[in-house]
Structures are given as structure tokens and as C-alpha cells.
């Protein structure tokens, strides 16, 4: 309960001190809690039911829907406050920022940021071009009570150039077209904004091979300098070169920029498989033995030296690379393995919290709702990190001993529905808490 108070009070401070500001700050906190509590999916109507039924808040429905569609909520200040609430955000002296994109399928034509999007992960019984929102997000990878978690820190809606050119109603905010930005440009702006909030901390951006290229590396590196590095995956046809060795001989022509060509990623993987060594790493929640070979080479695509690690499995291999040459092989493998937590975060966001079921249409309502869902997810992880003891897993699964995201939500629900919390965080009205709360919680459990 006191943990919840310590998390929510700094957020309330970002609103004005007028009577209206105090009411909005209180409604803001209880709306976040209504999304975290495993009552039902987080569509706006269900949040309203949760506020009136579970918290017993006397709230006019029109007033709540107006609040959810407000264009004046101080999201930037609140997000920066959230960043400051994360306990010890560094991992091995650096920020681990996971970068990826996802699609949020919707039904209905006039929904902000919706378009026909290619889904590269579509299954055989699914459409490869669903009607969906395309979201680019950045999350902080952090060990929480012995397991990795992804704390979302920022996001952008990606709207294609063709949609803007067609002057689609789904790409307008207050009847003004949204300025076009590519996914790579959006990624750069988010990485720079988050890194500037932690001005003295080295940053390692962990991303898949689509984002791990010069278009992200060069702009962010130019802005942040030597404290920014990336960790990504190489394609099988990437060509690698030896580091340039200065020669005292005077040769005709332009000076060489790269050393001798070694070969492609696939060629080197076959050539040096016999030199691979065994490493013990913490990967996907277990201690595993992996076989890997590493070498420092030069990538023409990034125009710099990188450390490449080939990880061999029974019949396959993958090649990871990083611009941070101080990282060990164990760290490279473990950090890239932790990148999968942003994928788990997307699943929690869309299915557990239920942002995929949201029925908002207008731009302000869509943006606010996704901000609420992402922030609720991050607050749940911050709460788990501040707990003294590890949360107990409610549903036992063979081979898994660590807690689940849903376990933290139930703990927060108990704290938020406690009468003492209402005294610490007054509700927008003085209505008593509905007595049906305990019954509903037992039904949810």
C-alpha cells in the first residue's frame, strides 16, 4: 500500500494544484489502477465500470469519457516522472533499451493510425495484411526479483507515407495531418529522448536485425557520443572485414579504409565452428550451456569495428554483434536473449491488459488509451521491483519458478482496494467503496 502511494504521488504532482487539477490527478491515478486490476479488458467502458463498481467512485459517464479523450493530459511530464521512479535502472553499469515494433489489430474503419499493415509473423490461418495500428516502442530491460522484465518507456504510432499522401481521416489529429516519420526516425527520437534523461549513463540499445543498421546507429551516436552502443543480429549475407593494419609502405591511390575481406557471416560460421568454446549463460530463465565463437571485425554497413559472436545450436547458428567491444561473450548472449521480453511485453499489453480490445476511434482517445495501458504495465513492474519479497506464483507451471505479470497485478489490486489507500489517495468523490468488491475479487481469482 505504501509502495503504491510512493509511486502514485509523484504522478499526481504533475497536474495543476487547482480544484480541477486535483480532480484530474485523482481520476488519472484511479484510471491507471483500473487498467492494472485484473477486472476485465481495459476498454474504456470497462474502466468506467471498474471505477464505479470496485472503487465506488460517483462519476458521471460523460465526464469520464471526456477525460479519456482529453488532449491536455501532461503525458510527457508524467512519463519522465515514471523514468525517475525506476529503482536502479542500470544493468552492469548501462541502460539496456529494447527497441521493436508491433501491430495492434482492430475492427472498424475510422480508427486513428489504422491501416492495412504487413504482418511478417502471420500464421498460415491469418491474414498477412491485417487492419491494424503499427506501434514502435522502446522498453527498459531490467532484472526484477531474479527475472527479466521490460518496462515500456515510450512509443510512436507509425503511419505510412501512402496513407498520409491519400489524406486519410485515420492520419489526422484535430483535422491536421500527422507529419511523416519513418520507423527508424521514430526510433532515433525515442532513444535520444530517453538517453538525455539519464545524461551520465551509457546506453546499449538491443534490437533485431531490421533496426540494427546505420540509420539508427549514426544519428543517435552523433547526438549522444561514445556512451551509445547497439546490440543486434547479423544477416547471413553481411560481409565482414579485418581491422585495418597501418602499413609503412607508400602505395599509390586512395588510403584503404578496411582490412582484408574475411567473408560473409555464413561463410565464417562454417569456417570457425571447430574453434567454438562452451559458455555458461543465464538464458530464458535457465542456466544453459552454449557453444560460441567471437571475433572483432569491421562492418562496412556501420563503418566501425564490432564484436561478433556466433552462437551454435544443434543444426543452426545465429550471429550477434555489438559496437561495445568491452562486452563479454556471456553478456552479449544474455542481453540479446533478454530482448525477447519486449515481445512478451507486447503480449501482456494486447492480451492481458487488453489494449487490443479498445474501441476508441478519435486520435486523442486512442493516444490516451495506449499511454494508459503502457504506463500501467510499467507501473506494475516498478511495483514488483520495490517489493521486499518475491511475489508468489499463483498458477504453478512445470519448469517455471519465477512470478508472472498477472501475479503482480493481483498484489496491486489488493493494495489499491484497501481502505487505507483511499485515505492516502483520495478519490474524485467521497462515495463509499462498494461492498461487492470482495466478491468480485474472489470471482477474478
From TrEMBL:
Residues 56-273 form the Transposase IS701-like DDE domain. SUPFAM superfamilies: Ribonuclease H-like (SSF53098). InterPro entries: IS701-like_DDE_dom (IPR038721), RNaseH-like_sf (IPR012337). This is Transposase. The lineage of its organism: Bacteria, Pseudomonadati, Pseudomonadota, Gammaproteobacteria, Methylococcales.
Amino acid at each position: 500500500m505504501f509502495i503504491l502511494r510512493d509511486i502514485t504521488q509523484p504522478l499526481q504532482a504533475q497536474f495543476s494544484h487547482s480544484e480541477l487539477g486535483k480532480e484530474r490527478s485523482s481520476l488519472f491515478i484511479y484510471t491507471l489502477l483500473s487498467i492494472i486490476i485484473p477486472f476485465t479488458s481495459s476498454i474504456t467502458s470497462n474502466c468506467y465500470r471498474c471505477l464505479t463498481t470496485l472503487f465506488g467512485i460517483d462519476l458521471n459517464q460523460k465526464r469520464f469519457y471526456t477525460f479519456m479523450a482529453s488532449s491536455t493530459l501532461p503525458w510527457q511530464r508524467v512519463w519522465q516522472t515514471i523514468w525517475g521512479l525506476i529503482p536502479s535502472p542500470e544493468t552492469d553499469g548501462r541502460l539496456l533499451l529494447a527497441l521493436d515494433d508491433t501491430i495492434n489489430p482492430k475492427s472498424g474503419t475510422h480508427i486513428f493510425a489504422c491501416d492495412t499493415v504487413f504482418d511478417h509473423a502471420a500464421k498460415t490461418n491469418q491474414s498477412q495484411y491485417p487492419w491494424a495500428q503499427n506501434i514502435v516502442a522502446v522498453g527498459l530491460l531490467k532484472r526484477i526479483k531474479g527475472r527479466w522484465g521490460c518496462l515500456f518507456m515510450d512509443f510512436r504510432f507509425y503511419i505510412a507515407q501512402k496513407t498520409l499522401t491519400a489524406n486519410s481521416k485515420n492520419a489526422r489529429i484535430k483535422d491536421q495531418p500527422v507529419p511523416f516519420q519513418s520507423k527508424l526516425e521514430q526510433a532515433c527520437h525515442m532513444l535520444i529522448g530517453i538517453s538525455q534523461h539519464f545524461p551520465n549513463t551509457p546506453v546499449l540499445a538491443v534490437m533485431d536485425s531490421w533496426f540494427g543498421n546505420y540509420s539508427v546507429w549514426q544519428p543517435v551516436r552523433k547526438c549522444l557520443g561514445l556512451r551509445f552502443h547497439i546490440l543486434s543480429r547479423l544477416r547471413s549475407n553481411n560481409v565482414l572485414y579485418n581491422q585495418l593494419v597501418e602499413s609503412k609502405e607508400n602505395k599509390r591511390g586512395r588510403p584503404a579504409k578496411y582490412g582484408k575481406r574475411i567473408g560473409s557471416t555464413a561463410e565464417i560460421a562454417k569456417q570457425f565452428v571447430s574453434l567454438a568454446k562452451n559458455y555458461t549463460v543465464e538464458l530464458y530463465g535457465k542456466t544453459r550451456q552454449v557453444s560460441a565463437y567471437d571475433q572483432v571485425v569491421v562492418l562496412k554497413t556501420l563503418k566501425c569495428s564490432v564484436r561478433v559472436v556466433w552462437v551454435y545450436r544443434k543444426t543452426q547458428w545465429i550471429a550477434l554483434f555489438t559496437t561495445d567491444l568491452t562486452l563479454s561473450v556471456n553478456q552479449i548472449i544474455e542481453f540479446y536473449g533478454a530482448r525477447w521480453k519486449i515481445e512478451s511485453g507486447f503480449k501482456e499489453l494486447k492480451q492481458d491488459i487488453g489494449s487490443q480490445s479498445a474501441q476508441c476511434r478519435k486520435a486523442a482517445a486512442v493516444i490516451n488509451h495506449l499511454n494508459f495501458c503502457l504506463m500501467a504495465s510499467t507501473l506494475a513492474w516498478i511495483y514488483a521491483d520495490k517489493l521486499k519479497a518475491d511475489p508468489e506464483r499463483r498458477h504453478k507451471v512445470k519448469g517455471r519458478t519465477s512470478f508472472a505479470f498477472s501475479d503482480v497485478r493481483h498484489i496491486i489490486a489488493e493494495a489499491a482496494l484497501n481502505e487505507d489507500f483511499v485515505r492516502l489517495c483520495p478519490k474524485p468523490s467521497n462515495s463509499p467503496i462498494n461492498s461487492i468488491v470482495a466478491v468480485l475479487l474472489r470471482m477474478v481469482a
